[in-house]
């Protein structure tokens, strides 16, 4: 076993099919769905200018997990890929019965990824899958007439989305994410059925972070008080 490979920075992309395990889906339906999902991903990555062949891909049964090298710009993953993927999924759905149609949750993050003889591991990968499973993201897709709901990490939103000239960050919505051990903030967008622009929401996370800082300070102060006893 090789434990000495250096960690590498990667853009982390994951998608998950809504209702993949629905009992109305038969094995032929799922095979058609999976074929359509990969065809949509190939087309969307190509349309977005992201070289699929240069990315590491792993099949998740009901979704796909992709790691893109650091030299591939992150902007296209959020500026072009979501819309291209939604278009490709709509195209698939027009030609298939309901049980073979696709609706997707999509998550974007980035971070240092470690490699070993069995695959990859990283806190950033864990967080990406926690984002993908977040209840607000599932609710957003469930209530949307579109086929795709996107969530980015706070890091990805602050470093990529806020500074993009190719999309409007005011159409994203901050949401709390609480899945297993993860407690964080994500940013949700509906690429094919966008939320109305609302610039006032961009300040909500700052307030939330201030509140969390205050709570950490209070907890730390309480620990010190319990340790030192009465003055």
UniProtKB/TrEMBL annotation:
Query: What InterPro entries does the entry give?
Result: Nucleotide_cyclase
Q: Which domain of life is it from?
A: Bacteria
Name of the protein = Guanylate cyclase domain-containing protein
Species: Amycolatopsis iheyensis
Q: What is the lineage of its organism?
A: Bacteria, Bacillati, Actinomycetota, Actinomycetes, Pseudonocardiales
